[in-house]
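DM from R.C. (forwarded with permission)

"hey, sorry to bug you on a friday — could you get me a structure for this? deadline for the figure draft is monday and I only need the backbone to look sensible"
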Amino acid sequence: MSRSQLVVYAAVAVALLLVGVRAIRGEQGTEASFAAETGSHSGGGSFSVGGQSGDLVVDVTGAVKRPGVYRMPVGSRVNDAVARAGGASPHAELEAINLAARLADGQQVVVPESVPDGGAVAAVGGEEGPISLGTATVEQLEAIEGIGPVTAGDIIGFRDEHGGLSSIDQLDQVPGIGPATMDSLRARLQP
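My reply, with the result:
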């Protein structure tokens, strides 16, 4: 090997080493900043951060103390998102949502409020508004035209099996849901 070839190989090796070190430091810095961000956010209001690999972004609204958009680790549950939003408000009807459901990127978690007379549960914004696909109960799904108890159960099962759903269109993979039912779902559900 000539001296110039050795210099070129050495320069390439040093460049690769520096790129590797920078990549490792970048990953550690990202993990540290995410840990600091999730552990230190205690002020009022909410914040919005673009999703990073391994994270998902959810909108928590309704009967929570700090509604807003939050970044959560993959695998988080609805209960984690509610806690991240400051917890449920005193008038929240937590029994109306599945706190154990896995979150999906882009999902909106709607925590409903109890009606003042102590009777029925109303979603924030009125009962006729769209239902959150990520937190819909079997009873809420059955209220949609064309959805019976079996199909509602299949939707919940599909959602839980796939760790949540980020789009209404994913429901066309559920047996028994045809084009007419999909139209009803689009009108009554939100991701």
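R.C.: lifesaver. The longest strand covers residues 55-62.
me: no worries. The beta strands are 55-62, 68-73, 108-111, 113-114, 121-122, 131-132, 189-190.
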